[in-house]
Amino acid sequence: TLRASFGPKREVKQRFTNQLQPQASTFKVAVLGAAGGIGQPLALLIKMSPLVSALHLYDIANVKGVAADLSHCNTPSQVLDFTGPSELANCLKGVDVVVIPAGVPRKPGMSRDDLFNINANIVKTLVEAVADNCPDAFIHIISNPVNSTVPIAAEVLKQKGAYDPKKLFGVTTLDVVRANTFVSQKKNLKLIDVDVPVVGGHAGITILPLLSKTRPSTTFTDEEVEELTVKIQNAGTEVVEAKAGAGSATLSMAYAAARFVESSLRALDGDGDVYECTFIQSELTELPFFASRVKLGKNGVEAVISADLQGLTQYEEKAVEALKEELMASIKKGVDFVHKQP
Ligand code: NAD
Ligand code: LMR
Q: What is the ipTM of this complex?
């Protein structure tokens, strides 16, 4: 069965102490952009994982204090800080999972694509360093626009001869977290049981919750489908507007990213029952990248769950077609950005 909650239930107690059921803490995780709004709570949640032996925190400023603070939590991982480009290589050496939330967030009135000019360069530079120092690591891209930054990362890795499409992930877990929350509220379902696959991409209409594939099997009226779909697609903007210029989702994003890190570590640790939605290189549609549910294994994506795209409702089929033009343009913008570099 799919685990709808963040992390395995039996380990919840273990998150707060290293006293209970000692378990091998073997994995090294790096967070790039660790002093930011997402980076700090994400680092805290990763510090609580019993599977992590070392947590490497990198930012261009303010990361020393974050690391000193976190290092006092009595959980197994050692916390190390790295500041600025001269320390980036050391941050990445020997790391199993690299999470990238570096970059600027939206303000009211902006689209995610409006962040492209700044964040494209940040992601490109950071992924170049990943290719040079830990080419075998799982790479989790959070920086927006995800629909373009993941293709940027892929092209950079290809140029460096270090591209493994099974290990490059756009983090879309927040869309699933939101869909699960909103559906359970609307339909009065036990939250722990609810799992809604969200496919496509991570912006506007490219975010497509497949409500007909909700587990446990649930029926929705046409009005409920429309209302929930739009609410899930606009949830990021809802937070941007509520924060009124102070940024975008950070806490729910950290929670979602920590779930994706924990799932990746469980997969690396040999758990054969790990499924997540993520934006990856894909053959599910004619688009070169597409978010869908995948099975994670030791080598990254082990299988794409193509069944999710079969037997869709008419509404969902139309929505899949409708998102393709925007998603393709965003993918192409990312690819072109790397190839137009001097
Ligand atoms: P923030 O401004 O609070 O933090 C960003 C951090 O990145 C800062 O600490 C900054 O110093 C650091 N940074 C900037 N340039 C860097 C570089 N070259 N190397 C390393 N670090 C660098 O922003 P935030 O709220 O944490 O959001 C970060 C990004 O995540 C934004 O692009 C945002 O749009 C995106 N985001 C994505 C999702 C998603 O679902 N994928 C959700 C929320 C936010
Ligand atoms: C989100 O979905 O919350 C993020 O992509 C941040 C944003 O700009 O909405």
A: 0.99
